Every structure is written in structure tokens, then in C-alpha cells.
Amino acid sequence: MLSSNVYWPFLAVYFTQASASCAYGTILQPREEGGAVKVNTFGYIGMKGPTNWMALDPGANSLCANGTSQSPVDMVPGSFSMIPGAELGLDIPDMPEGTEFENLGTTVEVVAKGGNMSFDGVQYKLQQFHFHLPSEHLDNGTSMAMEIHMVWQGEAEQVAVVGVFVDLDEGPGRAAKSTAKTRIGGGRLPAMKNGFFHVNAPAAAAKKPSALLETVLSSVDGIAEPGTVVKTQPLVMSDLVSTLSSGSFQTYEGSLTTPPCSEGVRWLVSDQKLSIQPGTFMKARSVIGFNSRFPQNIPGQRNILAVS
């Protein structure tokens, strides 16, 4: 496995296409000047879909069909290294004046106004977060209603993505029961190499709808057309930070889940779920539609398209 402070050149090599991807808004794919929103040229259905991404641009998108560390994957309990959320030092300031909320054609994206995270000796800055519907990663074989991808950029242009499952809130007494985390000896989980440890950690159910997501997605009908942008209402990020910091993250080295499918991306998938009201989900779905890449093979195995 490549250390997080040496894999970044592999990302830069493969960022040559013009359409916006998961890393839009980072140094790898800077935003357009003048506030214009870059609209994607790939898609998720038919000839523009994931099985044909390489054919859309064979030179740039080769890893989509040939890469061996591709994302998303099934987050099977006990199969990935874990790190406590508190060790990441997550710090995301509130946005009292709101922020830009954009439609990139294949997802909707919130532009971050700051945020810090530390992992494996690298300091990261939050660039943006966007939504996939349904979830791209699976939670032990189960697809969730949505998944948030929070995209971070390191000091030397490394890219890390925090994945957060989003489920539907079904009201008091009807939400799925949280699955308790396994603790060894009832105390702190034992450390392993690089500070990681292994433990069964299915995502824990949310206790109530996320006020942050309800606020963000209340504006989604204002960006129904690709290339449009609106200003959100004030966003309070502290509840999200508290929720993520209270849990743990399953971590692995994978790829962007959109073309050019660049590898060397550090994934941190939270074991803490968020939830939204069904009406909010329906509103978001009417704009986002379907935008999930199919699950990939275990990192290190041959690309699923190469063996199909």
C-alpha cells in the first residue's frame, strides 16, 4: 500500500479530461473562473455509463476498465482497517452566510468554505461535498438511499474522500436499530500498524434527520438544470463533525468513482449514518436521478470489466 504522502503524483497524471469529476474543485480540477459551473460529459446509463467510460476517452479513462484499486466497494465488516473518528481532528466551520450549491450534470455539489482533517501525517482541507443516489459503497452488501462524498485535498495535492451513508428517516420507533461496535476487553480498541485496527463495524443508524442535509437539499429544486447554482441557507456543520468524530472510519486506498477513475485516493467511510426525511429524498431524487457506479472488486484484484 502506498503511503498517503507519496501516492499523489499518480492522481495528477490521469487528470486530463475536461468534464467535472469527484475531484472537481480541487487543484486537480480547479473550478471555472467567473463562477461558471463545469458540466459533466459522462453519465451513468447506456453508452455514457460506467461500463463504457474508458471508451469515452481511452487515453484518460483507461483505469476505469483496467485499474486494480477501484472504488466503490462493499464495506464488509472486519475486512478494512479502522481508525477512530476522534483521531482525524475533524474541524469544519459553520457557514453562516450559506455557500454555493451547484448542479454538475451528474451530481449536486456544495462548495466548502474551509475545513481541516489530519490523516497519516497529512493535513487536508475540505474542498466540497456532493451526493450519490443510491449509495456507491455498500454497507455489508446493503445499498443505502444516498451517500455523501466529502472531498479533501492534502498539502502535496493528495486527495482523500470521506464517505457517509444516508438513509431514510421513518419516524420514531421505526428506524433500524443501531448495531453496537465490537469492543475488545470493553476498552480502547488495540492499535495496529500505522495506528489502524480491525473490528466489525456496520454503519450505525441515525437517531433523527440531519438538519444540515435537510437545509442543503431544501434548495435542490433551484438547481434542477445542469450548470445552475444557488446560494444555500446558513449551514451548521458542527452536528456533522460531532457525529463523524464519535464513530470510526473504515479506510482503504481506492480511486475516484467517476472518470478518469484515478487511483491513489484515500477513502474513509464512516460507520455513522445520517438520515433525511422521505420527502426530502424524493425532492433530491427528482434532480439527481441515478448516479452510482457499480461495486468494484476487492482492491488488488483484477478490474471487474477486465474479467467480465
Automatic annotation (TrEMBL):
Organism of provenance: Metarhizium robertsii (strain ARSEF 23 / ATCC MYA-3075) (Metarhizium anisopliae (strain ARSEF 23))
Entry-linked Gene3D superfamilies: Alpha carbonic anhydrase
UniProt xrefs under PROSITE patterns: ALPHA_CA_2
Catalysis: reaction(s): hydrogencarbonate + H(+) = CO2 + H2O
Name of the featured protein: carbonic anhydrase
Residue ranges of every copy of the Alpha-carbonic anhydrase domain listed in the record: 40-308
EC numbers for this chain: 4.2.1.1
Domain of life: Eukaryota
Keywords for the protein's UniProt record, in alphabetical order: Lyase, Metal-binding, Signal, Zinc
InterPro entries: Alpha_CA_prokaryot-like, CA_dom, CA_dom_sf, Carbonic_anhydrase_a-class
Claim: Phosphoprotein is one of the keywords in the record: no
